[in-house]
Predict the 3D structure of the following.
Amino acid sequence: MNRPLAKSEANKSEANKPEASEPQHARLAIRIRDLNRRFGELIAVDGVSVEIAHGEFFVIVGPSGCGKTTLLRILAGLDSMTSGTIEIETPNSQRPVNSMIFQGDSIFPWMTVWDNAAYGLKMRRVPAATIKDVVGHYLARTGLTRFAQYYPHQLSGGMRQRVSIARAFANDPEILLMDEPFSALDAQNRLLLQEELLRIWEEHKKTVVFITHSVDEAVFLGDRIMIMTAQPGKVKSLVPVPLARPRNILELQKTPQYGELIAGIWSSLREEVRRARAQEEGMTS
């Protein structure tokens, strides 16, 4: 790496060696070592170690309750780890470390589309001319220019998520964290937003950590997919996605490689989903 990583540390025990399937030569954006998170007797995240390269679109899949969101919240600084280390590269001190897009609506209902998209820049006291250019660019990229003076209650669910995406990219973070941002949308809007997200991501190749329950979405979007086990959440496997970019979902679905990836990931995930259901049934019985 060209520069040291900024370290967040809860336990200074020696970090594990990286797995063979992790990137060895790319400049790292995130290094997680032996991360654990407990809530009393409950182990939510258990010994997770992974490296994520700069500009990588990294996707996490796993059954409900496996600690995916907990892991993402720890990366965002919204939750603390019990033990382990997280190192995040911050080469540009003028930019925020991360922006997070949540599953539900996270934009301010009392602000217009424009003001929501500009919020992070205004908080950083970015010059007004720069805000105008940057916000205008991302509203155009998300198809929201004509809705700039609308309020969230005047928008559809898909449009509100586009505002969240515009705000996150406009804020120019080092890392973009996304927690099932499209899960509440219908299939058509979900596909449109997946395609829009990839188009915007291709511009600057932000490092993205993206959580989803959809194997199809994971393969369409990701460079690499981390499959997590049922609780306690561990890394079950890391699956590279060797599909060329830019990607067209309709063309991908025609290829044997796409179908093989879907089948392989789902085969690994199915066992964990069954285990998670058995755990839930045991808790309620």
